[in-house]
Design a protein that fits this description.
7 helices; 5 strands
């Protein structure tokens, strides 16, 4: 998120902050410019392989190797399973799980060749303790946490670390962005 990107840039790291919609980048861009921070904004939709390929190639060409990958893209929603359309359930897995997997696969070979790197996957406490009305979200975050744990063992011998961050509820744009996937029917059983 913006806070993490600014924190890392303030501490001397070159940050490539990515987002699906660069039209929403104004506040981050203004903050980075005001402090002359080493922060670059780049468009990236983790649900589209061509977007990943373009963003990773542009980053390697302009900023160099990806030393640390922070996977924090995600979508949410809060609807009982019985009322959750399958396309919304699948969309959460596309963004929350498959998006991170695609990003890892895009940077992992170069990290392995260099013998160094760090992959940080932002899951959720809802992936550890599943919550009612958030089954699709909880399941996608649990899947990413499980993949992260196994991946840590796969890549440790290559000097690559894998970390999982499982925050609780934090007021971010995910709530307004997922409003259309949040529904409660008081007459529903």
């Amino acid at each position: 998120n913006c806070t993490t990107a600014l924190h890392l840039a303030r501490h001397g790291h070159t940050v490539v902050a990515t987002m699906r919609n660069l039209a929403k980048a104004g506040p981050l861009e203004a903050a980075a410019r005001a402090e002359s921070l080493p922060l670059v904004l780049r468009e990236l939709d983790v649900t589209r392989q061509e977007s990943i390929d373009h963003a990773v190639a542009a980053t390697r060409e302009r900023e160099g190797a990806v030393d640390v990958l922070v996977n924090n893209a995600g979508i949410g929603g809060a609807t009982p399973l019985e009322l959750t359309p399958e396309d919304e359930h699948r969309a959460m897995f596309e963004a929350n799980y498959w998006g991170a997997i695609r990003m890892i696969q895009a940077v992992l070979p170069a990290m392995r060749e260099r013998g160094a790197g760090c992959i940080v996957n932002v899951t959720s406490i809802a992936g550890r303790v599943a919550t009612p009305n958030q089954i699709a979200y909880s399941a996608s975050k649990h899947a990413l946490a499980a993949a992260s744990e196994a991946l840590a063992h796969e890549v440790a011998a290559f000097g690559i670390r894998v970390a999982i961050i499982e925050p609780g509820v934090v007021q971010t744009a995910i709530f307004e962005n997922s409003a259309s996937a949040t529904r409660y029917d008081k007459t529903s059983p």
